[in-house]
Amino acid sequence: MLEQRYRWKNKQLREHVAVIDGAKAPTMLLKNATYLNQTFRKWMKANIWIYGDRIVYVGEALPSNLKETEVVNCEDYFLVPGYIEPHVHPFQLYNPHSFAKYAGERGTTTLVNDNMLLALQLDKKKAFSLLREMRTIPSTMYWWCRLDPQTEIINEEDAFSHGNVKAWLEHDAVLQAGELTGWPKLLDGDDLMLHWIQEAKRMRKQVEGHFPGASPKTLAKLMLLGADSDHESMSGRDVYERLLHGYTVTLRYSSIRPDLPRIVRELAEMDITCFDKMMMTTDGSPPAFYEDGVSDKLIKLAIESGVPLIDAYNMATVNVARFYNIEYLHGNIMTGRVANINFLKAKDEPTPVSVLAKGKWILRDEEQTSNFKDIEWSDYGFQPLSLNWNLTMDDLQFSMPLGLKLENAVIMKPYSITFDVSRDEISTENDESFLMLMDHEGKWRINTIIKGFSTRVSGFASSFSSTGDIVLLGKSKLDMIAAFNRMKEIGGGIVLAEDGEIVTEIPLKLNGLMSEKPLSALQEEEKKMREALVERGYEHCDPIYTLLFLSSTHLPYIRLTPRGLYDVMNKNILFPTVMR
Questions:
Q1: Strands 140-145 and 432-438
Q2: Contact criterion met (CB below 8 Å) for 497 and 458
Q3: In terms of Cα–Cα distance, which of 469, 506, 472 is closest to 391?
Q4: Which candidate, 412, 411, 451, places its Cα nearest to that of 434?
Q5: CA pseudo-torsion sign 235, 237, 241, 242
């Protein structure tokens, strides 16, 4: 099947013009609308004509031809553009389709998505078929192109070959290279990564950084090498330094970094009042985090924190569209744009009561519609996890002298193991637990101890990880095996076991990494798992991110990876994985 090269074919463009002439009727007329006009930075009155998925006219005139046109009286609403989330990780237990549906019904109709899981799990033909399928849903789905796997994997040269990365960069649904979690390699002289950045710039695509704690000189170097934006500011000063060097800055409010309100207050103290180079993101938080909304939640927080109302809307609409060079399609209610429109009951209440996405109602008077069709995931290589190997007590042999100490939900430091780890159970009087990373094909393993995860988690198994490998953790080897066996039985997921019984579980039937369920159902499962872990001594803010970042080498100081226990700061393997 050939890709459609342009957003609208010539025939469609002629039809759009014919609507203006009255030769064709608009499919929808939004009459007497008060809408946010970002050019004039004010609320204005207009009649908005829509034909199919496009706004074809915004102004005072009314169409002369209304045959079969849906006319909507908008006198009781305030209209704003559909929101754009610029930094989405659409694989945090949910899947891209379920997240798009949930976000769309809350006004976030355009998503710019991480491609990491697709790059690691699928060949590019399957991945690009999925991207094509995502174009058929009401939400608009754009993508990134990762330049590194964010961990130490065995087959990095295959998954991130020049041919694969170049094909992703060239895909017209891809808007940026990044995020650059591997930027230390770039500074150390990785010319292949620099070449990919150069290619992205040649294609007029953006390059997003991942630069937590970067000094002003480091920020300057990375700007010189091609970075355009960064979402890792943790203070108003961080934002200031990035703006000073020419970056577009994305303010973050996520489950592990809820920084946005504090940053806005600090910017006010620094007399920074221009928000044109700022965007906002939830940075791929777990399902329960989104109970209060997606970008609508960010806009509300920004307004409450002191951002002027129009700037708050702009940070989730036109600012994002301008940054990604898609303002001709998104971010405004103007002639020629895609018909993504939110209907609000009040100017300062950004959660919509009705939502148009590509000219279709996905929410009407707070009721969901049927315009989001289901997806057949098996067509794209996603099925229940099938493991043809068994976990035995022989696998659960622990002798490594070095472990990991969990400082917070995601930061891990090295830890010297000083007690006998040859036993079958660890006392609940301390916070040490057995920890294992196992190849999903059963070929290798690495066993150590983790300190600071919990005091009473007996058996825990997860196929959800950044590499797709199996994480096993707990105080009891027998309960770890019980959790693993249940995880295997349900086709992948996260399982908590105790005294041989299953306490709670989150089935993840799409390659053991994502759920096929709606986000609302997944939120309940996640909350139940979190509550059970907290009851058993988990003291940090987000166990899902602890799992995800266990292998992620973009964070200090030590990580458990498919190649072994890895020292992030010195970039070397301390203890390699063991073949079974």
A1: unpaired
A2: yes
A3: 472
A4: 451
A5: positive
Q: Any residues with CB less than 8 A from the CB of 128 and at least 6 apart, and which?
A: 167, 171
CATH 3.20.20.140 segments of the chain: 81-332
The pLDDT value given to residue 153: 86
- Write down the pLDDT at residue 1: 36
Does residue 546 contact residue 409 with C-beta atoms inside 8 Å? yes
Yes or no: say if 155 and 441 are a contact pair by the CB < 8 Å rule: no
Yes or no: say if 410 and 545 are a contact pair by the CB < 8 Å rule.
yes
Nearest-5° Cα angle at 358, 353 to 315: 65
**Of the candidates 145, 239, 225, 243, which has an alpha carbon nearest to the alpha carbon of residue 189?**
225
Q: What is the pLDDT of residues 471-507, one digit of tens each?
A: 999 999 999 999 999 999 999 999 999 999 999 999 9
Write the DSSP string, 96-122: HHHHHHHHHTTTEEEEEE--HHHHHHS
CATH of 81-332, one of 3.40.50.1240, 3.40.50.300, 3.20.20.140, 3.40.50.920: 3.20.20.140
Q: Where are the beta strands (DSSP E) in 226-359?
A: 229-230, 248-252, 278-281, 341-344, 354-357
Confidence of residue 2 (pLDDT cuts 50, 70, 90): very low
92-112 as b/e: b if 16+ CB within 10 A: bbbbbbbbbbbbbbbbbbbbb
Q: What is the pLDDT of residues 72-129, one digit of tens each?
A: 999 999 999 999 999 999 999 999 999 999 999 999 999 999 999 999 999 999 999 9
Q: Which amino acid is at 2?
A: L
Distance from C-alpha of 550 to C-alpha of 544, rounded to nearest angstrom: 10
- CA separation for the pair 12, 79 (Å, rounded): 26
Q: Which pLDDT band, with edges at 50, 70 and 90, does 263 fall under?
A: very high
537 CA to centre of own chain: 28
What pTM was estimated for this model as a whole? 0.96
